[in-house]
User: Which sequence fits this backbone?
C-alpha cells in the first residue's frame, strides 16, 4: 500500500497518537506517497462529470484541500480564483510547493467547521475529497452550513460518495475494524484523532445537506461501474445553493 517514499510504521504510529492537525502536519511531506491521497482517476472522473453537467464555473473552493490534489482540477474548471482551505499548516505548505506559482490559487489555513467570514458568498463551486471521515455526524451541520455560506446563489457543492459496502466484503470488515480501533483509541487517549470510514452514510448526509438549505441531486460516476443490483458504485453529489444562476 505504501511506497518506499512513504511514511514508516513508526511515523504512522506517531501520527496516530497525535491530534488531527498535528498528525497531518507530521505526515504532510510524505502524504502524496500514501494510499490516503485521492486517486487521480477519481479526480479526473469528477472533473469530467462536472464539466459535462455544469460547464465552467467562476471561482472555486477546495474544502480540506490537503496537499492540493484537487486544485489543478479546479483551475481547469474555474475561470476565476481558486482557494484551498485546510486546518493543517503542513499540508498547506505542501500545497504551496505544488501550486504556489499559480497566480489564481490562494491557500487559507482554517477549520472547515468555521470558515472565515472573508470567504462568504465568494464561490460558484466548492469541492471536497477524502476529508469527511474527520467530521463526526454532529459536526456535519456546521460543515455544510459553512460551505453553503461560502457559495453564491446557484453555486454547487460537489463531492463523490461511494455505495455502502456489503458485509460480505472483506473491505467492509477492514473499515469496520479500523473504526472500532479508532473508537477505542479516542476513548483512552487524548488528544483525539477523528478519522472514521463509516460515519458518512448517504441518508444522513442528504438530510443534513437539505437542512443546510441545499437542493441535492446525484450523478452516477459510470467509470467505476455498477453493483450487482444495478446501482452505481460511486455517485457525484451536486448540492446546489438555490436562488440564482451560476456565474
Assistant:
Amino acid at each position: 500500500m505504501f511506497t518506499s517514499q512513504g511514511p514508516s510504521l513508526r511515523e504512522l504510529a506517531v501520527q496516530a497518537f497525535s491530534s488531527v492537525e498535528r498528525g497531518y502536519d507530521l505526515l504532510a511531506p510524505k502524504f502524496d506517497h500514501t494510499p490516503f491521497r485521492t486517486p487521480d482517476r477519481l479526480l479526473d472522473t469528477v472533473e469530467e462529470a462536472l464539466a459535462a453537467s455544469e460547464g465552467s464555473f467562476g471561482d472555486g473552493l477546495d474544502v480540506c484541500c490537503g496537499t492540493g490534489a484537487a486544485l489543478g482540477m479546479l483551475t481547469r474548471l474555474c475561470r476565476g480564483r481558486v482557494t484551498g482551505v485546510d486546518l493543517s499548516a503542513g499540508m498547506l505548505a505542501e500545497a504551496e510547493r505544488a501550486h504556489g506559482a499559480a497566480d489564481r490559487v490562494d491557500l487559507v489555513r482554517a477549520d472547515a467547521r468555521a470558515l472565515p467570514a472573508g470567504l462568504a458568498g465568494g464561490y460558484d463551486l466548492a469541492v471536497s475529497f477524502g476529508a469527511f471521515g474527520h467530521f463526526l455526524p454532529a459536526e456535519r451541520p456546521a460543515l455544510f452550513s459553512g460551505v453553503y455560506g461560502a457559495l453564491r446563489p446557484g453555486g454547487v457543492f460537489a463531492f463523490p460518495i461511494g455505495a455502502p459496502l456489503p458485509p460480505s466484503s472483506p473491505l467492509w470488515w477492514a473499515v469496520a475494524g479500523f473504526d472500532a480501533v479508532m473508537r477505542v483509541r479516542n476513548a483512552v487517549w487524548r488528544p483525539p484523532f477523528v478519522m472514521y470510514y463509516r460515519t458518512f452514510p448517504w441518508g444522513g448526509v442528504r438530510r443534513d445537506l437539505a437542512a443546510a438549505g441545499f437542493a441535492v441531486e446525484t450523478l452516477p460516476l459510470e467509470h467505476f461501474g455498477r453493483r450487482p443490483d444495478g446501482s452505481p458504485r460511486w455517485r457525484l453529489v451536486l448540492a446546489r445553493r438555490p436562488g440564482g444562476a451560476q456565474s
About this structure: The radius of gyration is 18 Å. The chain is about 35% helix and 20% strand. The chain has a mean pLDDT of 91. The beta strands are 60-63, 82-86, 105-109, 123-127, 151-162, 215-220, 234-240.
